[in-house]
Amino acid sequence: MNKLIVSLDGLVIKEVALTKDRTRLGRRPHNDIVIDNLAVSGEHAVLQQTGEGFVIEDLNSTNGTYINGKAIRRQVLIHGDVVEIGKYRLRFLAAEAIDYETTVTLRGQPYTRSGEGLPALTVPGQATAVGVLQASIRVLNGASAGREVALSKVVTTLGKPGVQVASITKRPGGYLLAHIEGAARPKVNGEAVWGEPVHLSSGDLIELGGTQMQFLLEG
């Protein structure tokens, strides 16, 4: 089922199933999703199910609607997109996503999370690196130094909830690392990940919550 995960300051407030063709978001009580915050307009945005998929449109709000940090007027949502309205973040999860479960150790503490990941798209007749190479991450420091975790799922989630969380997603063109939650940003080769996900290359060094890891591709 398509849904939005609503959070504020990194804490999940509620989960909203998108069962209507048209879902209104705003501060006034008649909206389908009410966001009671002065930074949110009375009728802020609308989410519609169309032939394109789910489309979100800003309704000339005072402070704007953002997707993954960028202001939008109208945009089709894809699985994992984060809609920002005021201080609230609404993460879109697509119905066609598949279940995943990945366990990664962060500072010696195993973290397991089940959720949804979007299946990698394929282009007929086109071979991709994802389909040929096997990816994994190797922990470089701490109690789990030397441990390798195969990235066999579409989406692998790394980190500790409420502290710092990132994801690695398998796509037709390769693997992408994205920031999910936490004030501190993950780093790839010493550079903080801001805005758009970062494409990973074999040998890249990832820093997350004090844990250092190396991304590996093997054919």
UniProtKB/TrEMBL annotation:
Record's superkingdom? Bacteria
Q: Which PROSITE patterns match?
A: FHA_DOMAIN
- The residue stretches assigned to a coiled coil in this entry are none
Q: Which Pfam families match?
A: FHA
Record domain FHA: where: 23-72
Q: Please give the SUPFAM superfamilies that the UniProt record associates with this protein.
A: SMAD/FHA domain
Q: What is this protein called?
A: FHA domain-containing protein
Q: Which organism is it from?
A: Aquariibacter albus
